[in-house]
Structures are given as structure tokens and as C-alpha cells.
Structures
1.
Amino acid sequence: MFIIIGYIIVIAATATAFTMAGGNVLLLWHNSEAIAIVGITCGMLLVSAPMDVLKRTMRAVFGVLKGAGPKRDDYLDLMKVLYEMFMLGRRNGLLALDEHVSAPESSSIFQNYPNFLADEEKVIFLCSALRPIIDGKIKPDQLEPLLKAEIDAKKNTAHGPINVLHLVGDSLPGIGIVAAVMGIILTMSVIDQGPAVIGYKISAALSGTFYGIFGAYGFVNPICNMIEFGNEAEENYYICMSRAIGAFARGLAPIMAVELARRSLEAGLVPNADDLENILKSSGGK
């Protein structure tokens, strides 16, 4: 929501300033320059990145516009899921977790937290992290490096759209200049048609530079920065989960394993230790 508001402010401030200076905002729009910039940018994108990266870039942009990313309630759900799973494993043995890990969609624990269950990637991460513990195929001190490697892989994958958007943001001013130069070349071909025609052609050419700079610094670079913050939040979510699972694998009590995860998060995302303990103990894992 704030991103949309920010974009509206950028457009409104630009249009207002231009109007206050005596201009007509319609003078800023020239179809030929816009088509040149959009077309060159799209062609550049097709050359610069694999299709799967471009698809992830589109998903990342739409995700940020919709306000994607873990919120306070998402972390609370995670803490509750972890606590219930850990308590079940502590009471009934690790094999009791097998039915939940093998079929999370039918798990009585996961079904209590539909928002968590709906995020397939996070559910898979949790289940695949618990599976080696249940099977006894790995020592507790070997688990966290394994999870870190998986988180690093996710981080590298998530950075693809950032690289694409950085390229667009860095290139748009230059693409705007290319469009402007084409406009100047066209102007030179009609220089004998009088000041009115020449003035219109030059204004159209300059609008290309305007579109490139305005698009880069007003739209692409800010949303790229926001996606980076979102990626960091996603990474912290997985780190929080991995630390709790690693602590449980090492033998920490469920409440302490979740507390360790809580301490890895910034203040404001989760309650304080006492409040979280009360919330967890009043959940289904008590």
C-alpha cells in the first residue's frame, strides 16, 4: 500500500511542479519516445536474463506491490508450529513427527495454521529440516550447516530479480538518451519547417531523457530497494526457523528452542519472552 502511495506522490509532485511552472502535463507525453524506451528495455531484458529469472522478477515486483513478506502474525504462527512440533517430538518421540512431515497438508498441527500451510516453500523447508532428525541420518551438530547451505541457495536465487532490476535502473537513463538522440536526428531533418515544428520535435526528444531518468530514479530503483528489504526479511524468517530446529536437535527444551529463534529477530516482530511463553503454552502444544 505504501509503495502505491509513494508512486502516486512521485507522479503528483512532478505534475504539480510542471503545472505551477506554467506547463501542460500533456506536453510531457510523446508516444514515440515512450514506445522506444519500453521496447528497448523489454528487448534488453530478454537478452540479459534467463526466462525463469524474468518470471521471478515479475513475481517479486507484484509481491512487493501487494505487501508480501513475513509479518508479525506470520512469525507468531511459525513459533506456534515449531513449539507444537517440538512438544510432540519431546512427549511421544521423534517418530511421532513422521506423519506430520510426510503429509503436511493433512497434519492436524499444520491445519491449525492455514497461512503457514499455504506457503508451500516454507512448509517444505520445515519438513525437510525435520526429516533427517526423525530418520536419525544426521548428527545434531551437522544439521545447521545443512540448513545454512539451503538458506544461502534461496538467497542466491532471490538475488536474481535484484540484478535484473539494477540493470534496468542503471540502463534507463542511457536508453532515454538514445530515444532523445533519435528525436534530435528527426529534428535535424525538419529544420527548414519553422520554429513551431522544431520546438515540438525537440520537446519530444527531451521527453525521452525525462522518461529514462524519471523511470529509473522514481520507480525502478525504489522498488528494487524494497525487494531487497523483502528478501532480507524472508532470509531472516528461514534463519529463525533453522535456529529453532537446530537447537531442538541439540536437545534444548521446546520452549528454549523457540526462545532462541525469537532472539534472532528484531524487536517488534514478536512478543517479549514472557508474553511469547504464555502464548505458546496456551496453544495446542501445551
2.
Amino acid sequence: MITCYDVINTLVRTEKGSRLEPQRKYLFRVAPKANKTEIKKAVEEIYKVKVQGVNTFIMRGKLKRVRQEEGRTASWKKAVVTLKEGQKIEVT
């Protein structure tokens, strides 16, 4: 049984994420296998808000280099969650 805490990993706090907050949009790092309906239900259950829409995309890992060795950071899935009018997530 997958829980809402398995779907939502963390709320992403970046400059871009902070600029989206006045538009009622929040960035989340989510499980790679999670779909939009699972993400919507998880956010509504955890934060007790109403979700208007969810957009998801895969953040591909970046190429990194340490001396002669080339590597890649891990890929991850990002979700942009738009809340309904009057809704807000309290971020501390």
C-alpha cells in the first residue's frame, strides 16, 4: 500500500519556487512512478488544501566531472501544484 508520504518527497524551496507562490503554485519533489491524480490526493491530504491542477516533468540528471571521471547526478520528478483560489500552504 502506497501512502501519501511515499508520493510526496519534499516541498522544493528555491528562488523559482518562491516566485511562484503568489500565483498559488508550489514545487514538489515526488516519487518517479507517481501520477498526477496520486500527487493531487497526496497534497490535499497532507496540507489540507484544494488542488486545481498538477503539472509534472522529469528533471534529468546533470553531467558532473571529478578529475578524469565523468558521472551524472540522479534524475528526479518535479510537480508544480496549482491551488484553488483562496488556498495557501503555510511554509515555515
3.
Amino acid sequence: MHIEGRQLEVSNLDKVLFPEVGFTKAQVIDYYVRIAPVLLPHVAGRPVTFTRWPNGVDGQAFFEKNSGRHAPAWVRSATVPSPGSSKGRETLDMVLLTAVPDLVWSANLAALEVHVPQWRLDAAGRAELPDLLVLDLDPGPGTGVTECARVGHRLRERLVADGLDPVVKTSGSKGLQVYAPIVCEDADHPSRYAKSLAQGLIRETPEDVVWRMEKALRPGKVLVDWSQNNTAKTTVAPYSLRARAGATVSTPISWAELDAVRDGADPATVRFDTAAVLARVDELGDLFDIAARRRGALPPG
């Protein structure tokens, strides 16, 4: 196919990657082409980790950080220090998604999910200080999106009180993710601040919230995962597909939508597939427009 001046070879377009809803590779490619105008700004300058599902979401998956053997010459990459999870390598050549053909290339590899860190590279390819804070709200057994929405509302109040301007999106899976554009003192500053927020919530309502990962602690509670602010970690990008049965999408939502769920609206109202997301963007624009938000300085600490 030809797109934006690039020629790409695509294959197995009829292959069903989401069997429950009959969603094919061609539809995955089409979605990423159409969502590109709002997705690409959120991954610009951020090294990408893909999750690839070559045999569909019912098959085996793997993470791919190193771009080397697959990427055409025109796909940009950056050499970055290898995170601790990548054994045996000091550096990785990681993809930078900059244009629609890049998304077509990755979608053709069945790279269903796009994950990025909370920092960008500067013009020289060096990691800048984190520019985003993220708190991942993950429901434990016996809880769901409603409980996450209650915690998300409380987090928003605290972030606003600290001078930040938060946004929220669904994870595309079970929970929610609260972000805020930030200025910070050092690379570990967001982790320290996020941990203090999580621990503050737990002091108030220890029966509802947990900040530690141990499975035994999680039934009936929402995990406030502050650890995603570690510079070695990534979080699913806004508008990325998720490798879930219904071909759901990590979707920006409004605080009014979150509060409606908190107050009893059907949690299904904030679960979106690709068609719903494209329609929302046409109607509402980018609800995750970080560039239009106030970038606040994290409290010292």
C-alpha cells in the first residue's frame, strides 16, 4: 500500500486478531490510520514498546522494544539505555512513531498495543526529565470501574489542590489511569510524589485502597499503582488498542463521565471499541489534549 509517500507491504489482512468480535488485521491497520491525528502527538519523542500478538489475542504475545530486525529505514529510532527487564543488552534501538506509515508498519506486525514512558527524548536523543505523572487505578477482585472512579475523583481533588491539571482515561482493560502534565526536580520526583499520594489515600480509607502489589492485599480494593512513574516503565498510550476480547481502546474520558460512573452510571458507558472512539474524537476532539493543559510543578519532596 502507498500512504503519505511511503510504500509498505502488508500481509494476511483477513487474519482475525480479535476472534470474539471478528476484528481483522485490516481493521487494526484502518483504526490506527484513522486515529493517528490524535494518537501521534501523545507518543511523539517517546520510545515505544510494542506488544505483539501475531496469532491474535487468543495466542501467545511478546513485548518488543528493540526495532532492529523489522523496521524499514524510514522508521525513526533512538538508542536508549536498556531497562532492567531487558537482559543481556546495555542499549536498545527503540522505535519513535512519527507518522501514519509508522503506525501501518507496526500494525502489520500485529503490534496491537503501543506503550510509552512518561518522558521524552530531546533533540540530541537524550532522555529529558519526566513531563507526565501517571497513577494507574487497577481494581482488585470484587471491585471494578465504579470503585476506580471513586478513587480517581479523590485523586483529582488532591492533584488540583497541588496546582496540577489532571486528565483521565480508561486503561482499555479493567481500570482507569489519571495523568497530569508536570515539571519535576529529578527523574525520581514523580515516583516519590505519586507514592505519597497513594499512601495518603490509604491512610484515609485503608479498606478501599492499596498501594502495594501483593495479591493477598488486593481483594475488595483498588490498587493505586504509583510505580508506573519509574523511568524504566511504560504505560499504554492514549488511543492504543488493548489486546482484550472486545478490541477495546485506552480512551480519554471527561471528569464528568468519571463522576457519573462514581455516582452509579453503568460502567459500560466508559468502555469503548474502535468505532466508538473514532466517533468520540469526531464529536469531542482530543479529551487528552495535554498540550492545552497547565503544566504544574510537583510539590518539593
4.
Amino acid sequence: MKLGIIISQTHPETVWNAFRLANFSIKQGDTVKIFLIGEGVEYETNNSKKYNIQEQTETFLQSDNAKILACSTCLKSRNQEATNACALSSMKDLYELIQKSDKILTF
């Protein structure tokens, strides 16, 4: 299955669970793309011992079936830049993710 996950918030437990689901899905043989939009582009800022988002992200990115995209407009409005792990993307990329995915989940 091709799974698209859209993260639009920074609530630590929610983001952590989104990545946990993404990692579980990859283990089931799925392809997963995560698109960060709005506050979601700040997902790494709320990492904690209880909700280790960074650990889940690192596990996710170890797979060839995983990709993280981030809305460039949302990043720019927050004076952030893309990283090696998170490519600059656009509404066109989000639309294509939605169009090509079998399922879409939002967090």
C-alpha cells in the first residue's frame, strides 16, 4: 500500500504516534510519504524523552520506502530551511501525494 501522512501540528504525542504508525506501516511492506504543513514543519522542536520524535524520525528515514516532504511556504514563514531529511515541497507535491496514495491520514 502507498500511505500518505499529513502532519499539520506539533503536539508531541500526536507527531510521535504519526511516525510510529509510519514505521509500523513500512515494516508491513508499505511505502510511506509524510508531508509537513503549517505548524507540522516544526515537528522536531517538541522532542522529549517521553515522546522521542527524533528517534522515530531516524528509524523512518532508514527505509528506502520512506520520504518526508515539507511545505516550502510554511518553512519560509517560520524562517526555517529544508534539511537533508526533509525536502522543500509545494502544493503540487502535496496534491501528487494525495493523488498517488492508496490512503491518506492526517495528524
